[in-house]
Amino acid sequence: MNSRIIRSTFAFLAVCSAVEACQVPVFRYALERWRPDPYELVIVHDGPLTDQHKPVLVHLEESLVGPKGPLVNLRYETIDLAKEKEQPDHWKKLHAGSRAATAHLFYPHEAYQKDSRPIWSGTFSKESVDAILDSPTRQELVKRILAGDSAVWLFLESGNKKEDDKALKALQGYAKTAGKEIEIPKGVIQKSALDDPDLLLGPSDAENVLESSVPLKIAFSIRHLSRTDPKEAILRAMLLHLEDDLLHKEIANQPMVFPAFGKGRVLPPLIGKGINEENVLGDCGYLCGPCSCQVKNQNPGMDLLVKMDWWT
Questions:
Q1: In the 3-class helix/strand/coil scheme, how is 171-203 assigned residue by residue?
Q2: pTM for the full model?
Q3: For a 10 Å CB count at each end of the chain, is N or C smaller?
């Protein structure tokens, strides 16, 4: 708990090499060059899928792929308990003898890990599929990122208005300070500059060229997230399972903020008193600093499940 509340910039910067070969800010490098890890959806049923469930499966399949590639970082598998007798008891327990097909959502690469638990379980229906694939907050997150926001702070309200208002006011002030004081690393080359016949690029400069026309700026915004909004149940599940204790009573009643950036990646949350100037500016500094560690998995954070044709 203490390591979360007192979090310094150096804790994040330490994950990257001290050699700053690439000057593209972390938030922009993540947007243009990191591929989101796919969540895993396991659909469990006992016997053939019914006529009610078959069109839901078709809807899911059609929602995953667009004209030029994946639309959602999600993959799925169906398990028929009646047909596959050798399936582990794990799936039988999750299905719990339900007559209807059930759906179970896992973080990337976790569905088949020993003792792994889903972050969300429910009935397999068109409504649940649509809720898994997208939500208003995720749509707004994509919109703001493609407008050039360095990060969108997802502010998960505690439900205590006094505490929420206090934390929100502080966060707004810190975000404003970060926007004024943090500068874009020197050496970043705009894509449009490549048309300049007088531009001479060295071997190392190629890493510093932006790959899209999204505005490059230092800007942070805040998006409220209610603890009770049914439309955001899946997003809350993704956020609140990032760490083992986020659902514990002594923590769950405090406001939390999750900085989201890139193609929907989030850093671990700041909670309660941890929403302070040092921690907020530390996160902002990391996100806007040069991406000297281009290997995605060596950077902190977790990808959210986001519906967007990023490549187009």
A1: HHHHHHHHHHHCCCCCCCECHHHHHCCCCCCCC
A2: 0.88
A3: C
